[in-house]
Fold this protein.
Amino acid sequence: MINNDNRVKRQHQYFQYSFRPIVPALCSDNQFHQDMYERSAKGLLTSFGNESLPTFRSVHISEIVTESGTLDEGVAFFNAEELRQMGLPLPLGFEKKYKDSLIPSYILNSSLCYVETTNRNGKTSFFATKNLGVIHALTNDLAETEKRKKVDQFIEQLSTSHFELTSGIFEALKLVNDNGGLKLQKCRINSRKEGTVIIPMYIIGNYIDRVIRFLGSHRVVMTYLVEGEEYPLVTSLREDILAKWINTNNAYQVKKIQDSWQNPFVFNELILPDLTRSNEFVTVQVLDIISIRNLE
């Protein structure tokens, strides 16, 4: 019994986010996020939604096995425990019935998240959180008007309700880039809506870094999706390949292309050279990359 109690306590500490400091990756300082960070640094993209992503080298959280079951079950169970300890009365069995909403609840409550949703105009993406510590960690990046706002303006966005967990619709704080710095906006995220992605920002950030580093050394065929259709792209960010592509020995021009892969306005978009067409670039959404094949 003592050994079992120790195991449960250890597992709770693994997932705990309340009263934990925020680390530079903008997430709670716990072993769960450390493990997820290390996985993403290796180029593995962990997804948390109701369905797996088609993304190259992506793994759904339900496919990760721990000593007490799959990781999705662990997140749901210990988030329910954490919320109970924080004063939200959840009946026994709640973690099984509402596992699909306890998982995004955990991610939003313990990190800055990249959120992707769909509407009539296509996909839209932004950053959001329900964690006040994350907002405090970003204080220096906030616009001056936001620094003066009081916490009580965002009670719903920084707490968890029974309705959120049963409906899968979460109130959160959205961070919006503005000329004077980041601005805070109230937003509502329907985690059960088709096409919605909620994932810690550091995961997709590390994943992008890994892809870009690989392109900096290789010529590849990248296959990506656009509205369900597959498209191939022969691309690279390697210096000698780009020099040949633009027919120049000008190192400045080559470096300019190497450094222009990121869309400054859309975090998840890559702007990559199409090596089959002279001076043509293609915009690829990171989560729509389904394969990368080295041509060398």
